[in-house]
Amino acid sequence: MAADDLENYESDMELQLYREYKTVVGLFNYVVETERRFYLANQVDVKTLSNAGEVYFELNLTDAWVWDIYRQGRFVKSVKVLTFKDVNVEELNPDEFQIPKDGLGN
């Protein structure tokens, strides 16, 4: 496989993943970003912990979707993440993902 073929394949996979994200985002309540992954989840529990003076975070996500082009199954029942890096959790506004009844946004 040539380098261009591999790059095109990865670009196609990323586009498919983005389309899947646009389809499923309305099913979830939260967006969670860590240094390694991006998740959608319906329930998020974040705990700040420390050990020997080091602060870290434990995240428990329930009913989640994982942004990862290399995963076959992106829907998971639960996810546990331990990280020393920043964590961003945002609650989604479901109205942003609904199509207006008149189709015009009025």
Q: Describe it for me?
A:
Pfam families: DUF2469. It comes from Glutamicibacter nicotianae. This is Protein often found in actinomycetes clustered with signal peptidase and/or RNaseHII. InterPro entries: DUF2469. The structure is a single chain. The chain is 21% helix and 42% strand. It is built from 1 helix and 5 strands; from the N terminus they run αβββββ. It has one helix at 3-24; strands spanning 30-33, 38-51, 54-66, 75-83, 88-91. The protein has a 5-stranded antiparallel β-sheet with strand order 4-3-2-1-5, with no helix packed on it. A hairpin with an 8-residue loop joins β3 and β4. The model has no long low-confidence stretch (mean pLDDT 89).
Number of helices: 1
Number of strands: 5
Structural class: alpha+beta
What is the general shape? flat
Residue fraction in strands: 35-45%
The percent range for helix content is: 10-25%
Q: Report the C-alpha radius of gyration, rounded.
A: 17 Å
Largest sheet: 5 strands, antiparallel
Distance between the termini: 50 Å
- Overall mean pLDDT stands at 89
- Uncertain runs are none
Biggest sheet, spatial arrangement of strands: 4-3-2-1-5
Q: Which H/E pattern describes the elements?
A: HEEEEE
